[in-house]
Amino acid sequence: MTDPLTEMLRGLRLDGVEYGRCQPSAPWATAYPAKAEAQFHFLAAGSAYLQAPDGEWTEMRPGDAVLLPRGDAHVLASEPGISPTPVDCLPRKPLCDGIVDLQCPCTDSNNLIFFAVMRFNVDKRHPLLNLMPDVMRTSDLAKSEPTIPPLLDAMMREVEMNRVGAGGILSRLADVLTATIIRTWVEHGCGDASGWLAAVRNPEVGRVLAAIHLDPAHDWSVNELARHMGASRSGFAQRFVSVVGETPARYVARMRMHQAHEWLREGQRVAAVAERLGYDSEASFSRAFKRVIGASPSHFREKRKDYGAATP
Predict the structure, then answer these.
(1) CA angle centred on 160, ends 310 and 101, rounded to 5°
(2) 98 pLDDT exceeds 80?
């Protein structure tokens, strides 16, 4: 039988929003604002320091890569303490195959950094994303996953863009490496092994959670979910609450509204999302959405318009 975690990861996908590289000359510092998307950096050559969302500085060495799965604000610099330039203030020049060259004020061919902005197909409030650390480093995970070093080596060979099709290959490698980082973190139990992650690993409840997450738009009934566990309705509900910490109905409602949020971010109309989720009216959907998410659907439609205007 397939592991529930594997089932959930099968449904977790990444789409690249932007790929680029830069060759900054020291001293330099670049501030990356918080985004709805994940952010990824790969140091191919030279040296750099990362200031994580908690303010702590860590050194990056050639071949190091970091993923910020929730897209939190951070800084990359040649050394700590330099006043950073916002990344949105740096011009972008198309390079090749959908990759841009970040135009730093001064360049140094001895420094080479590749970056990517990637969008998950799930809301950032998804329990799996919430459990992830602010920063995930390949150096921490490579010992547990033997495929990470070869992926990094392949990226280093492509990042100089000296070969035909290097840009396209590099962007795909970044996608694969990011997915591998997440899978390795999950499979090797990094972080808190209690709470939601423990529930997913529970042999009974995990199957139910996997079914919900693989079809989050479905209006799951307690009877349907009880059949997935192979238990009676009352026995299932009691077991679910004891492991997950909330009722099945509340959990399903949260997942459905998170899916609705994703559809709204993609540009779908509120009425269309309400219909897809089986609501009789836009008003009833809007009330349910606000109850779970904390804001109206139209609020996120407006935010998407702002994002679309700001995206390069």
Answers:
(1) 20
(2) no
